[in-house]
Amino acid sequence: MDIPNDREFPQFIADDSKCNETDAINKYSAVINRPGKIISVEKTDLGIIITFSPSARRSVLSYTHETQINLLKPCPAQTQELYLHLELWSNNIFKLLFSNEKYPKNRFDGIPKEARMLIADPQRVNFEVSESNDFITIKTAQIKILIEKSTAKVSAYNSRGEEYFSQRKNNFRTPDTCDLAIGTLADKYCAMEALELESTEIIYGLGERFDSLVRNGRTVDFRNKDAVGTTSRRAYVNIPFYISTKGYGLFLNSGAKTNWDIATEDCSSLQFSVEDNQLEYFVIQGDTPKDIIKSYCTLTGFSPLPPLWSFGLWMSRNSYTSWDTVFDIAEKLRKNDIPCDVIHLDTAWFKTDWDCDLKFSQERFPEPEKNMKKLYNDGFRVSLWQYNFIPPNEGNTHYSEAVQNGYLAKNGKGDPYSLPEECKGSWTKDVIIDFSNPDARKWYGDKIYSLIKMGAAAIKTDFGEGIPEEAVYHSIDGRFFHNLYSLVYNYTVFNASKRASGENLVWARSGTAGSQRYPIHWGGDSQCSFEALAATLRGALSMGISGIPFFSHDIGGFLGMPSDELYVRWAQIGMLSSHARCHGAGDTTHREPWAFSKEACDIFRYYDKLRYSLIPYIYEQAEKCTKTGLPMMRALYLEYPQDRNVRCIDDEYMFGDSILAAPVLTPLEKSRVRKLYLPKGVWVDFFTREEINSTGEWIEKPVELKTMPLYVKKGSKIKYCDVSPSLMNGCKNIREAEF
Fold first, then answer.
1. How confident is the model at residue 1, as a pLDDT?
2. Which listed site, 247, 272, 334, 601, has its alpha carbon 20 to 30 Å from 673?
3. Fold classified for 348-518
4. Angstrom distance (rounded) from CA 115 to CA 113
5. Is residue 331 annotated as a catalytic residue, yes or no?
């Protein structure tokens, strides 16, 4: 196409009037509807509703020499009016809801409130609204919000008068920054927002991020999926909540496809968008990151306390294939003096491996009640695997019941949905339980209830992240269900288990905002490598700063067979995680410590016993987590937000309030020194009691295979107890060590 000699910046810009019907410039040009002139301001019980006339621009292709970009040109609007709801939900939390509908539909109406991301209701807040020629001002006891009339820009200030939040308004016409707007393209909507990002501001959170604790400059794959390892941008748990070092957190309450650009498209912008005609998010002011996390949990819920026994060691592999194998493992655990509380049965406890019908194999796992009772009497509880798919195999009554009663996700013809054949590597024929259907939840919950009553102690809710949006679900549009599905799935299994046992846990892989209400989460299928171990730690810290307090991972890694050294290093972190489980892929790739060298087994035992001796401290810290929303494994930033040295540290962590752990993440052949940072204060070496009076400095610690540097804040009192083979009878002889 000939480019007209139009001298608008940058040099040439396409002329819409000269584009024919098939020209991509015209056919695929998005219209961006931004807030224009204020039509009205209406006060409500919760805040205000501002009605705007839209100011529209169209994206058109432009050139400057060899650079091809898009610019935004004025065009007719695609909507009559735009609406901005600003609501006060507490003295330090406000909500913005932006849409081309005055009262947009709640996308989660068909989902029980307790299974949604947002479970809170707004508090009654005293606030004042005033207007001047230039601004609309809203004040509470803690914050002040300004809306600039000429630009519709929203800014917020804390009680000290410091700005902590500000929308970005784009005066330049390039869409590298897309500020608050509703976009339309080919009958689809996109609601978008841009916030100002200061040059020294750092963003944390957004769920389980294996690539980096710091989100600035990192592209985010925000669609729950099987990560197949822990060294990529893929994640099982995407949480639309982040924390800024500027003193606020943001929670995006949407189940639609979401995109985040944090200094990636534009280094001074934090941008996010959803594939919807509405955008709803909460801005949480807090003087410390701990304050922000606690306020976030007032919106999405706090975690309940898992049972004491769950903090013991879990032993597993994929998969123990008979009771004979299980009892052999149990015997060797006791014979080798390895304290342990849980033995997990993975995919092979059914008649056919992976053929999940929630029935024990009569040949390999006969008399389950009797055998689980026997294990219980020996100090072991049993955990069971299942997943949210059903193989449509002949004789699987689980499948026939679901089909007969309409408990499955459907295709456009009303038949059970299955993945298309081109999804190579997937179980393409497996059907999906529709947990948006209340009858399906009851049906499945009753089955889980029966397993717990039979003697099982926990259920592993595997998968949950691979749900197609094109399927038809009972109570929600598939476009808004993909990431939310895992929350409803875990809610169903958690509640059924609790109804049967009164205890608070599942063993969950996928999740989203609110998943902390259904503990425990583990880090999925990590590779057996030092790189994957370091990435797993980053995922744990990122999960913690996203509101998930209880987190575990597969000691040794899942995919492959770890070396003795890697197994030990993983165990050292695992024993100082909120929960500890050994697990690996394949019946011959053992994760039991006696399958490794004597030295590795001895070191494993040492750290396992260290964990069991620290159970009083661990459980005490866990109780605090349920009240504060804080994680057991904490990025140093959470404890030392004023120390700029810790902001990017993601290879150390605080284990509870008092213990700093600096795991060794490099093979000894590469280095026998661990460089670590000690924040300002007096630190006591956990093992030697040597004191270091740090001004906030890096130190070097010589390491051997047994070494995992641990330091305790001076003045801390650490509870500990006698080590016993299991926690069946609780903690004995609890004492207190003062450091």
1. 29
2. 601
3. TIM Barrel (3.20.20)
4. 5
5. no
Pick the catalytic residue from 87, 211, 465, 639: 465
**Catalytic, out of 211, 226, 266, 525:** 525
Please state, as a whole number, how many other Cβ atoms lie within 10 Å of the Cβ of residue 419.
Answer: 17
Which entry of 462, 503, 565, 592 is annotated as an active-site residue? 462
User: What DSSP state is assigned to residue 304?
Assistant: P
Average pLDDT value for residue range 403-412 = 97
Q: Is 465 a catalytic residue?
A: yes
Average of per-residue pLDDT across 178-202? 94
Strands (E) in 603-723, as ranges, are 633-634, 653-655, 659-661, 673-678, 681-685, 691-694, 697-702, 710-713, 717-720
Closest CA to 258 of 300, 296, 308, 206: 206
pTM for the model stands at: 0.96
Does residue 446 have an active-site annotation?
Answer: no
- Asked if 51 contacts 80 with a C-beta cutoff of 8 angstroms, the reply is no
Residue 44: count of CB within 10 angstroms of its CB: 11
Residue 159 CA to residue 86 CA, distance in Å, equals: 19
Q: Under DSSP, is residue 738 helix (H, G, I), strand (E, B) or coil?
A: strand
According to CATH, where is 3.20.20.80 located in the chain? 348-518
Pick the CATH number of 84-177+185-196+248-285 from 3.40.309.10, 3.40.1010.20, 3.40.50.300, 2.60.40.1760: 2.60.40.1760
CA distance to 80, 425, 470, per residue, from 422 (Å)? 43, 9, 15
Chain region(s) in the chain for CATH 2.60.40.1760:
84-177+185-196+248-285
